[in-house]
Design brief:
Blueprint: E1 12-13, E2 21-23, H1 30-48, E3 50-58, H2 61-71, E4 87-89, E5 92-94, E6 104-107, E7 115-126, E8 130-131, E9 136-138, H3 139-145, H4 148-157, E10 159-165, H5 173-177, H6 182-191, E11 195-198, E12 204-210, E13 213-215, E14 222-224, H7 238-248, E15 255-259, H8 267-279, E16 281-282, E17 289-295, E18 299-303, E19 306-307, E20 311-321
Parallel strand pairs: 2-3
Antiparallel strand pairs: 1-2, 3-17, 4-5, 5-20, 6-18, 7-17, 7-20, 8-19, 9-16, 9-18, 10-12, 10-15, 11-12, 13-14
Helix pairs in contact: 1-2
Amino acid sequence: MSSSPPTPLLDLEVSPGRPPLLRAEAPGAGREWAAEHRDALRAVVAEHGSVLVRGLGLLDTAGAGAVFREIGSGLLPEAEPFAPRLPFGDGVHSSTKWPQNQQMCMHHELSYRLEFPGLMLFACLTAPPVGGATPVADAPSVLEALPAALVERFERDGWLLTRTYNEEIGASVAEAFGTEDRHAVEAYCRANAIDFDWQPGGGLRTRQRRSAVLRHPVSGRRCWFNQVAFLNEWTIAEEVREYLLDVYGPDGLPFNTSFGNGDPIDKDIVELLNAVYEDHTLREPWQDGDLLIVDNIRTAHGREPFEGPREVVVAMTDKTQLADCDPTVEVTAQ
């Protein structure tokens, strides 16, 4: 990601509680505008962590994809999603399927992988009449606000993601790994430091230990980078959690997180993490045609509950290697 200062293009509106906003006023010319201002846009994101561009009129997947490809450095395929997306081709996807009445808590996309997107690109084709914003939060500020002892433990132990794949809840084996072939799945897991166990009946359980704090590969800033709170059982809506526990048991949840040594993460820690995120959250209601660019390492994002139709398409770009981000724990299968 370029660290050069933005060239003059439009006035950047920076307001408390809102992500930085640029007004493009280029409906129907989104691709040309993005190509002309690519370096400036990426410099703004390098400085602020995110930017919302309004006025491009991105109202279909083709137009959004064209803009995504101008801004990104190669759109990335989906891999190891925690919930399914609809593919629209050429690296453009639907937003993650998630109940619209439930909060999607702050997280960094694919933070449990050995390689992950450095940039997230979002285009709002249809804005909901109520709610549905994609909020953002500055990861270095979140890290600084967390209790030092808690940060030190996560730096020492990392975090552990446990996933149980089945055909009913969350992403299936085929959706997560792109295949149902056991040998291919096992080869992928071994190559990506993922411990795995096949369950009776053909289900799969995996565990992967990762660092909770990384150093941004460009700025060098330390960032709280993980999905500890979002993929923890205590973030699941209470009635949904009780149903899942009743049907699948505590070891059969589709996903859960713990400290890297396997110790459970208590509810009060999850609530603390979500509260700190909220204290540092910026939000702006979507408008039809908006573009949101997010530095996936510097900035967490989420999705707020909504009513009515909402269509946001997503692309991931700027492949980043965990090894280039000064991880604090060794990445080996358990």
